[in-house]
Amino acid sequence: MSSRFDPFEPAGPRWYAIEARRPFLEDLAAGVLDWLGDHPPEALSDAVILLPNRRAARAFTAALSKQAGGRPLLLPQVRPLGDLEEDEPPFAPGELGLDLPPAIAPLTRRFEMARMIVEDFRPGLSPLRALEMADALGGFLDSCQLEEIDDLHRVATLVEGDLAEHWRESAEFLALAVEAWPKRLEAMGLVDPAWRRARLLRLLATAWTERPPTQTVIAAGSTGTAPAAAAVLAAVAAAPRGCVVLPGLDRELDPAVWATLGDNEQHPQNALWRLLNGRAEREAVRPWFRPAESPVAEARGRARQRLINEALRPADATDDWRTVIGALRKDAFSTQSADPIAQGLEGLSVVTVRAEEDAAAALALMMRETLETPGRTCALVTPDLALGRRVAARLERWGVAADVSSGQPLSRMSTGRLIDLTVRFVDKPLDPHALLGLLKHPLVRLDLGETEAALALRALEHHGLRGPRHRDWSRLRRALLRAGEPRDDGKAPSEGTRARLAAAGVLVDRLEALSAAALASFTPEAPLDAAARTLTELIEALAGQDAWAGPDGEAAASLLSGLIEGGASLGGVTRAEFADLVRGLLTEETVRTGGATQPRLRILGAIEARLVRADRMILAGLEEGVWPNAAPTDPFLSRPMRQTLGLPPPERRLGQTAQDFVQAACADEAILVHSERRGGQPAVKSRWLWRLEMLTRGADAPTTPIVLERPSASVDAARSLDVPPPGPPRYERRPAPTPP
Description:
The chain has four domains: 15-99 and 197-292, 3-Layer(aba) Sandwich (Rossmann fold); 106-190, no CATH class; 344-407 and 594-721, P-loop containing nucleotide triphosphate hydrolases (Rossmann fold, 3-Layer(aba) Sandwich); 411-591, Orthogonal Bundle (PCRA, domain 4), CATH 1.10.486. The protein contains 27 helices and 18 strands. The strands form five sheets. A six-stranded parallel sheet has the order 3-2-4-5-1-6, sandwiched between helices. A hairpin with a 2-residue loop joins strand 17 (677-678) and strand 18. The N and C termini lie far apart (89 Å).
């Protein structure tokens, strides 16, 4: 009889789970390869592996190759569950019997929604406000489509009793919008991305329920938060050669507490409870294949997992913490001498820093320190995108480029900065800071020759833009003329100075002509599409076609094209309003550039890090309002109205982020970092840290001191990097060339 792991041997439905303490993708790959040992190599190529997203799919393929130890493999068909296409596996050709329309591009959708709002519902609304309403409307429709709420016409009937008048107005607007928007999409031959995604998953679930697949199918890492995704998982679990592998199911949670999780949306196990409810008992979920590990590592990992899960148990079940701790110690001491609480804290530390800049410096140093050990990896997990970018910038001082999953805002990239400076030039042409920034931008060509342009720019900066700000171009031109006149002592400027001033005068003439052409569109307002077209022409006059090269150039071109195409019906804007609108769009647009990065260092958001495990996991941004984030507020519907419509409560997202925290905090080495201040204001420590501290404080014993927060050498070392050495400043000697 074979001792190989066979996940398809038991009768279906087959549900498995990998503990939070284990590296999910690595254990999944190890189990798949162990099963493959009793099958021909081509069996793996016929298998379909469904994972939550593209990043997880890529990481699983890498884990599979690593677990194979270099031997060749026929890779399975790895597909992201949240981004399926009907003409690709797991769909068979012609299986659906229909062609779904393509999804509308996000930027096009936003502008088209804003146009609909202005044309049909809010004439005279400013473009900026229209785009804000389009964002809110798009989010509402996405939520309804993912939850598969089709009868949206009920929105108008949600307002009853003595609710505030603005709720009534919001419901009436939504009722009209949800009727008008599908008609616009149908006329364009497009559908919403969320609707298309949910529709594909529902069709796949129906097809596999009616005609179960005969090939090997493994769905792993998903918690089925969307109803259609949960239906797909159930169909896979019941298939003849299918199974589902869940992440981080807590088997040790008291059954009485588990039964109450349906009413506790903020608990990390809530999503798994909702998935299993009515489909499988928790006790029927089997453990997935686990590679061999030392007894000490296993005991430490189990203790950590139990400690984190106990810290995050529901608030009304924390009254027996001391009883749970006593039982945990009693069970552990029957087989070992180590205190399980202290054992669970091995490799776990909490680091407190003063502010975000201190956090960025310390985090960068912790990540850089990891590279000193060959082959060692590190992942920084934080939902704070700004903190992640600060850390990436800090790493650049050592020439290290980390893999940042969130990408870069377009406003921080070369073409984005060019657009920002150009639109500021349109708004305030004689702002010296913006004007100099624009002229010194590397993409701007002054058409004066490289040497002449540099001399003209230097003369303009020294003689024209210093001192009081000029109100018009004629005053700037007179300032340059005065600089070329003899001084009070009768000494005339040199020939070189006059040549530079003359070149600066030519440059001013060109800038004035460009400014006049741009301002001609604003009288004092301009249609948004005309303003965007003027901005595009001005950018090309300054930088040529080079402005649209590269990933940032392509993203900028797409953004301005969307403004031109979608802004025709959004009304007029002043120069200041147009500048604010464009700069806001540049900040919101994100560009993923790829390129050469250090593969051992990653900076991830909480969602991207769900199934990722590194040798050192750093969890940062652990402050209330950051991680966990505040429950989102619906601008259109009140809580009772959302509940009546069938939308999930806002707190459900907090439970999902709590599960992300548990998965990362159960790593062998986990560093939890929080700041005492954010944005110059005192910050409140994350509720999860508070709970962990309270639990460990209550578990302290005279013979076993429990230490959670440890001083970090990285914090002090990071501060010292920016502190000058003691003593008087040292100056380099003046150059003293001594030619032979």
